[in-house]
Amino acid sequence: MSQRTLHTLFKPTSVAIIGASNRPKRAGNVLMKNLLSGGFSGPIMPVTPKYEAVLGVLAYPNIESLPLKPDLAIVCTAARSVPAIIETLAQFGCKVAIVMASGLADEFTDDGVSLLSLTQQHAQRYGMRILGPNSLGMILPNLGLNASLAHTAALPGKIAFVSQSAAICTTVLDWANNKGIGFSSFISLGDANDINFDELLDYLGRDSKTDAILLYIDSVNEKRHFLSAARAASRNKPILVIKSGRSIEGTGAAKLHTGGLTGNDAVYEAAFRRAGMLRVNDLIELFAAVETLAHSRPLQGERLGIISNGGGPAVLALDELMLGGGKLQPLSSEIYQRLNQLLPKSWSGQNPVDIGGDSDYSRYAKALEIMMDSDDLDAILVLHSPSALGESVEIAEAIATTIANHPNRHKINVLTNWSGEDSAYEARKHFSKSGIPTYRTPEGAVGAFMHMVEYRRNQKLLQEVPQSIPVNIPADSHTARSKLQQAIANGKTLLETHESRGILEAYGLNTVDTWFATDAEQAVDFAKQAGYPIALKVQSPDIHHKSDVHGVMLNLTSDGEVKQAANAMIERVISLNPDAKIEGLIVQKMALTAGAQEIRVAVANDPVFGPAILLGEGGSEWEPTKDAVVALPPLNMTLARYMVIQALKTQKIRDRRLPRGLNMNALCVMLTQISHLIIDCPEIATLDLNPVLCAGEEITLLDVNIGLNPEPSDNASRLAISPYPKELEETALLKNGKQVMLRPILPEDEPKHLAFDNSLSDEDRYKRYFGVRSKMTHEEMAVLTQIDYAREMAFIATEIGDDGEETTLGAIRASIDPDNTEAEFAMAVRSNFQGQGLGKLLLEKLVRYYKNNDTLVLTGFTMFENRNMASLAKRLGFTVTFDMEERLIHMHMDLKAQ
Hints:
Protein name: Acetate--CoA ligase family protein
Structural class: alpha/beta
Distance between the termini: 24 Å
Strand content: 15-25%
Oligomer: single chain
GO molecular function, one term: ATP binding
InterPro entries: Acyl-CoA_Synth/Transferase, Acyl_CoA_acyltransferase, ATP_grasp_subdomain_1, CoA-bd, GNAT_dom, NAD(P)-bd_dom_sf, Succ_CoA_lig_flav_dom, Succinyl-CoA_synth-like
Family: In the N-terminal section; belongs to the acetate CoA ligase alpha subunit family.
Keywords: ATP-binding, Ligase, Nucleotide-binding
């Protein structure tokens, strides 16, 4: 995926319009009008054999007659002519084309090849990229480029909008122009058969002209690339996404719209959250979010103050805030005293601050000034309802002036709600022109504020240091995998509790004692062995739910009860289905359920994002979108904790306050164990643990079903998020005989990595950071330790001390460009371990990794003072050059030539 080609898309110097037309309402005519009216400074070259000129611009009869190679071509012709046009453009040297036509996938050549496939083949052969097909086009206001079929142009601004829907594009554009909100880029992806969300996110995440990104998504195809790009971009700027297909019917409609894969909406929600994006549910929320992004700064905290000239709107705002999980900040005594001197005696005396229905512009301005003086607030919401005083616009002007002149204007976000229509419209327009976010209702304003809060919380979650899992996960999965592979070889498609105990217990998951009996007599023998009371279950591949045939009997306390229950269950199955196959009977030791709580955990295989972990309450039937919270593996303790909190917050599970009920730490351990199991064992297609008995710190899996995947795939294609690459761990010996572990870095390494960084001498820090460098902050360290293994790598060297504690001795890291062309590395080693061969071990490991990753080039820079680093690189095969002007040493290795 070439970011270099995208530079041409976003910075074209010349444009060709294939199929330009003088006929009104034709796509080629609308395109020409938009291009000519946008102010684009480069050549605009219409291509058509029908006219000598189009809208007064000299036309060219064919592509070959163009006087220069266009950076961007816009194809406005019918679908049937697109493949040939793309082939000619690509041969001519054009690198990017926008295809407007739809239906390419539904039309075929005489040889049965779809026009879409043929178009893609021609483009790929010559390294050409395509936006579309079925694209509305794109608008780059800063270049004056309106290469779209939109009914209006976009204003320049700092927000990028990318959409799979042309109708959503025009709707958002119309609304934004009315509000005076501008865009850095406005892009219609169409069917996204080539250029897709991930590449655009990579570009826009680095684009200095873009402060925020909005996405409208019908479907995602490249799950891992999408999440990696979104995660990288969201570290630097907010990404808001609106996703269609929240209902089953809507999902089907979305598939018809773009032809993409359909996935479960709850899994999409989990993916967005995991990548640090913020989802909005509808266009109203989207518009509110755009308003906020266009005119606000990132929140420094969540403490909100509210000013209102009426009690009702203030209460509505407060309700929305509290129901949304927000925080209302109490007034400090100083602010209370100052407001008390300003406001009438009837004022509310608390936050929300009701300043009275007779408030004029002066009272509003002074109250806001007092609130902005407070160090206890991060945001202020100013509400106004129509008043007999009729000073709506005057109050708005006073508010805008107060904000502009206040020294805390860059620290405190101010949002406004002017309710009403006739009397409030001009005031809201004034706020928009002044760059102050404004909303039509109190609820809308608070909802927009909570978007900012949710984004801040998502970013903080991504930076939390996870607790190390307090159990031993197996060093390898050979035992579990061999059992699964043997079951598949035997033609099994489903493993139940008695068949999966060894697999689950290898990962620290507790199951009840279970036996498999072939008949009633053997069931009695196993029941005696287990000790009463026991549970008895019939085993038949022809039964979907045992409860349908009363195939589960609990609390059996004697041999006679077991024998009678066994025979009765077998008879019921046969009576309902004479051809049913009875495999046997499952005997389980009854778990102690008094004071415990039952929940349900499952792993489903989503067609878009692959394995997803579900958490909810027990039951034979559930719909994940409604009954469970969802998370994507891999999980650590922090992500598992967030999952449990979400389940409690949304009441997908209820804390029933039982004596031996839910224990947060125990639940998180179990979820993390399941995540390890799913990552290590691709033979597992689905997993259903129902019920799971939570008894404080003791969690027991009572009933287990493992669905098997007869053709397991590797994790690169199966998992949406790259897991920790355990296979890259290795041990090595230093010159002094010490054994060290070389392994990829983990989020849990942050405290030890900070200690390592702080242990570097002043000289080593100077060499590592090319100058004097203060100590790392938590936020900076989180970026270094919570890496995306799909697009960056950091290896650390550690040793276990006499006290059993692990210490970091050295680290090397490299990030790679999205094209997998070049990785740039940096390295540091503890001062007291230099000269022991540790740097050589780390650099050799990194070289091997990027060779295996098919990266083309590995580079690095170091200072003139760090000649040892340069000598090491030269011994390992790097080309070393010296930049005398910058006083830097450049190290370069062509990995394909090694």
